[in-house]
Write a structure and sequence with these properties.
This is Acyl-CoA carboxylase subunit beta. The chain is of the alpha/beta class. Helices cover 41% and strands 17% of the residues.
């Protein structure tokens, strides 16, 4: 039998401490998510409702099939910036008429739904996911266009929004725009470049220039309705394919459009699956509050994969990296999970071989991060750690099966790259609240700077100020610690969301289902030169 056995003692003081630390981080995360849910605040939410309009997430709820999940993406976008958490945009994956779709919805309670630099990054990430996984894109539009004070950061890169819409359409991936309010200036090209367009009566306003701009440019007197109203676009310009009497009717019509798309998954959904043998609740107490303390990732795997069934590959070789085959919600996966933090030459070579095997078998890969990076030191440098680490990174870079990454604990240095960090284009990447990611740990980085400064002073024959050194080290440690936390990284869209560990299996299952909408094939050769 290959069912994993657990050694987790849920009654131990260590487990209880880990659990309490994780719950505290989840409480903090919930408070940040609440900011995104609050939109522009009570005043602007109430104003929006008085106009008889639905909120962004209410529109999404009416669009989705009843009692189906919505995997929200990048909910902490813009965290730590001058812009509101969530970046005035909701994005995610949901099921509409049985079809998995990528949905974006402007939040008009935040500065009228105007796009800021983080809104743009979030929208482009959503388009990237739609294209890679062949998911129909549904845009729920109500936006005043660019947030003009930040136009210098939006205008030039913002053209990629319209480029993406045309590329999706050219790839045979349907695009649908439902216009609830303003979609003006450059924003008019969202419906203009979508395959299907629905506009709401007396609400939708789609024009390149509004009445004031037309007056200034041409001297012509006009009004919103004759210039860009839904009735005009349905009867005169032909931009509107469907005319809706109100918001629920628009969402009903959007569902009918999806029902008629004839959009099919590349792979059939798997049949009934066996849940893990162990309780997902126990995931809360596995990762230590202090990431210097190792933990066994097999305890995580046992609570995520089907039937807790895991065929481990090379279990006695390169033991600080667990690799093996499993299924998750019926989909086959190859799992790479850091066991003791550091990656040595053996782990690197083992990973490269395992990744090649997954590509030969067309099996997606799941990377579970808890690594401090590749091992350093004279013995390891002489043993070839650079070329072996490069071998692993080469394999990850050129592998063509879909990759999924979850940051559970540390994800430092080049180990972050070897384990398929954001720069290596995983289809999806999520983090637990316990995760940290940076070039190295805060203490190590501060220590390196201190050593360099001390050596520089000695070379110049100058005395070294130990008191100033201690203050510098404390400042650097604090900075790196804050910049390595998941809220900070998620705010910059370095992941697709920070998730509750108990939701890991569900989130990965939703992602795997979306991935199997598009055909894929592993690399057959095509890797770079492996330095032996």
């Amino acid at each position: 039998m290959t069912v994993l056995r657990t050694a987790l003692d849920t009654g131990s003081a260590e487990y209880r401490a880990n659990r309490e630390a994780m719950l505290a981080k989840l409480d903090d995360l919930a408070a940040e998510h609440a900011k995104a849910l609050a939109g522009g605040g009570e005043k602007y939410v109430e104003r929006h409702r008085k106009r008889g309009k639905l909120l962004a997430r209410e529109r999404i709820e009416l669009l989705l099939d009843p009692d189906t999940p919505f995997l929200e993406l990048s909910p902490l976008a813009a965290w730590g910036s001058e812009y509101p958490v969530g970046a005035s945009l909701v994005t995610g994956i949901g099921v509409v008429e049985g079809v998995e779709c990528l949905i974006t919805a402007n939040d008009p309670t935040v500065r009228g739904g105007a796009s800021n630099p983080w809104s743009l990054k979030k929208a482009l990430r959503a388009h990237e996911i739609a294209l890679a996984n062949r998911l129909p894109l549904i845009s729920l539009v109500e936006s005043g266009g660019a947030d003009l004070p930040s136009q210098k950061e939006i205008f030039i890169p913002g053209g990629a929004i319209f480029r993406d819409l045309t590329r999706l359409s050219a790839a045979g991936i349907p695009t649908i725009a439902v216009v609830f309010g303003n979609s003006t200036a450059g924003g008019a090209y969202v419906p203009g470049m979508s395959d299907h367009v629905i506009m709401v009566k007396e609400r939708a306003k789609v024009f390149l220039g509004g009445p004031p701009l037309v007056k200034m440019a041409t001297g012509e007197e006009s009004d919103d309705e004759s210039l860009g109203g839904a009735d005009m676009h349905a009867r005169v310009s032909g931009l509107a394919d469907y005319f809706a009497v109100d918001e629920p009717d628009a969402l009903r019509q959007a569902r009918r459009v999806v029902a008629r798309l004839n959009h099919r998954k590349a792979y059939p959904d798997p049949g009934p699956v066996e849940p893990p043998k162990y309780d997902e609740e126990e995931l809360l107490g596995i990762v230590p509050g202090d990431l210097k303390t190792p933990f066994d990732p097999r305890e995580v795997i046992a609570r995520v994969v089907d039937g807790s069934d895991f065929d481990e590959f090379k279990p006695l070789y390169g033991t600080s990296l667990a690799t093996g085959w499993a299924a998750l919600h019926g989909y086959p996966v190859g799992v790479l999970a850091n066991a003791q933090g550091v990656l040595f030459s053996e782990e690197s070579q083992k990973a490269a071989q395992f990744i090649q095997l997954a590509d030969q078998r067309d099996i997606p890969l799941l990377f579970l991060h808890n690594t401090t990076g590749y091992m350093v030191g004279r013995e390891y440098e002489q043993g070839g750690i650079i070329k072996h680490g490069a071998m692993m990174i080469n394999a990850v870079s050129n592998s063509r099966v879909p990759h999924l990454s979850v940051l559970m604990g540390a994800s430092y240095g080049a180990g972050h790259y070897g384990m398929c960090g954001r720069a290596y284009d995983p289809r999806f990447l999520f983090a637990w609240p316990s995760a940290k990611s940076a070039v190295m740990g805060p203490q190590q980085l501060a220590g390196v700077l201190s050593i360099v400064a001390r050596q520089s002073a000695a070379a110049k024959g100058q005395p070294y100020d130990d008191e100033a050194d201690a203050a510098l080290r404390a400042m650097v440690e604090q900075q790196i610690e804050s910049e390595s936390l998941p809220k900070f990284l998620s705010g910059r869209l370095y992941d697709d969301g920070v998730i509750d560990p108990r939701d890991t299996r569900t989130v990965l299952g939703l992602c795997l289902s979306a991935i199997h909408t598009a055909p894929y094939e592993g690399a057959r050769g095509g890797f770079g030169v492996f330095r032996m």
